Amino acid sequence: MLPTDHITLDTLTLSWLPSQMEAAMLRLDKLDPEISGNKWFKLKYNLEAAKEQGKKHILTFGGAYSNHIAATAAACQLAGLTCTGVIRGERPPVYGHTLQQAMDKGMLLEFISREDYRNSRQQYNAAPDTYVIPEGGHNAAGARGCEEILSLFPTHHFTHVLCATGTGTTLAGLINSAAPHQTILGIPVLKGAAYLEEEVRALLHPGKPHQWQLLHDFHGGGYAKVKPELIDFINTFYQETGIPTDIIYTGKLIKAFHELIHQGYFPDKSKILLIHTGGLQGNLSLPPGVLTL
Ligand SMILES: *Cc1c(COP(=O)(O)O)cnc(C)c1O
């Protein structure tokens, strides 16, 4: 188990925030440098289930830059479990930092073609002593861990909660644990992710009224597409708040937040909570000096 006492709830002072609104950021990025942000919450009950079922080995899936792969490798080492990462695509001649870090943490890496990956992700014949975690930790145990995020601090007074969305697991956990007066907004970082509605709904507790929505216009060109205006926004946000964000997820979240404010999306007196889901290790794939964090 990882202590959560490094996490903070930071009030945001932003020149562009209307004076009758409040905004704060829940800094899951501060949890641990390697087991970043929301990934720990998604892994927690999966690793616990693996141990309860007497499994010795974890197998999971991801791309060569996956925060989930990096986090799983580190969390398994901490939990005393061995692990395999099934990586989409050919083995690169030189490992990027994500794969290097995963390997340093003892993860076995298995590279498979994109086509095989699509198939095996659905159905993988793992050995009996192996516990399989789906790509991105997208399962009920993953969402259950994310149900604990909003109770790390008193968050009842917030009217809106925003988070960056990949698989929708974190969003589902937030929705399941939100108060009835709160609206939960997911910002998908993938283009054309209409399927996400269903994926999120599949993880929701039935019989509870939920107010939530996916806002699909803020992917900034698609997954891992990094435009200069995103880089500029991340740098400016850091200058203003001292909070570093990443190019794949949380940078797009804060940029979406800025645009929503600009559009007048939020009613007067809104109190908005942004979830910093971590992912800062992903910035290491940029050439040095591009981000001034
Ligand atoms: C993986 C990740 C997400 C996406 O979380 P989902 O539960 O898959 O939607 C968001 N932010 C960061 C930093 C991530 O690494």
UniProtKB/TrEMBL annotation:
Residues 26-278 form the Tryptophan synthase beta chain-like PALP domain. Its cofactor is pyridoxal 5'-phosphate. Keywords: Pyridoxal phosphate. The keyword Protein biosynthesis does not apply. The modification N6-(pyridoxal phosphate)lysine is found at residue 39. The keyword DNA repair does not apply. It comes from the Bacteria. The active site is at 66 (nucleophile). GO terms for molecular function: D-cysteine desulfhydrase activity. Belongs to the ACC deaminase/D-cysteine desulfhydrase family. This is 1-aminocyclopropane-1-carboxylate deaminase. It comes from Chitinophaga flava. The lineage of its organism: Bacteria, Pseudomonadati, Bacteroidota, Chitinophagia, Chitinophagales.
